[in-house]
Amino acid sequence: xxxxxxxxxxxxxxxxxxxxxxxxxxxxxxxxxxxxxxxxxxxxxxxxxxxxxxxxxxxxxxxxxxxxxxxxxxxxxxxxxxxxxxxxxxxxxxxxxxxxxxxxxxxxxxxxxxxxxxxxxxxxxxxxxxxxxxxxxxxxxxxxxxxxxxxxxxxxxxxxxxxxxxxxxxxxxxxxxxxxxxxxxxxxxxxxxxxxxxxxxxxx
Length: 204
Known about the structure:
The chain has one domain (about 45-200): Ferritin (Up-down Bundle). Helices cover about 80% and strands about 0% of the residues. The chain contains seven helices and no strands. The chain is elongated and about 45 Å long. The chain starts with a helix and ends with a helix. The relative contact order is 0.15.
């Protein structure tokens, strides 16, 4: 399957998710406890994220994806600190802010120390902006579930990204970064999945 076809598949999946989400947002739900928008968008984000992660084959591409993930995590964590009333979710959000701030610093240091030809992005992409907007727009009683659902999808994507580069990346120093960061990502994923049964019932 060539790059153009994969790109078309990615766009189709993402646009389909937006279309379905918009339709559900316009159509009233019989069950007002939960917002139908979140489940569709979070699932779509997970699918697209995994496909994007699998497509990263170059060091600049890896650096861009890793930095983008860090920026999303820090922003999402800050939103969670503002909006969540769950001590467990707030504690998790603080860990994400701290860990991904450290991750970005390590990424920058690795690039600088080994003269790697890669540039960190200045802002998150459209997909992650949409995810952050979903967090900001979530109903208070549904926020925790929305945040943790996104966290699970984002960490699954990051796990694929780190494992792939650690296994087949071209630059040793960046492979070491991916391997070390990947262990932290796996820990965070387990933490998010442990929180999920609690947040899933938050609006009941």
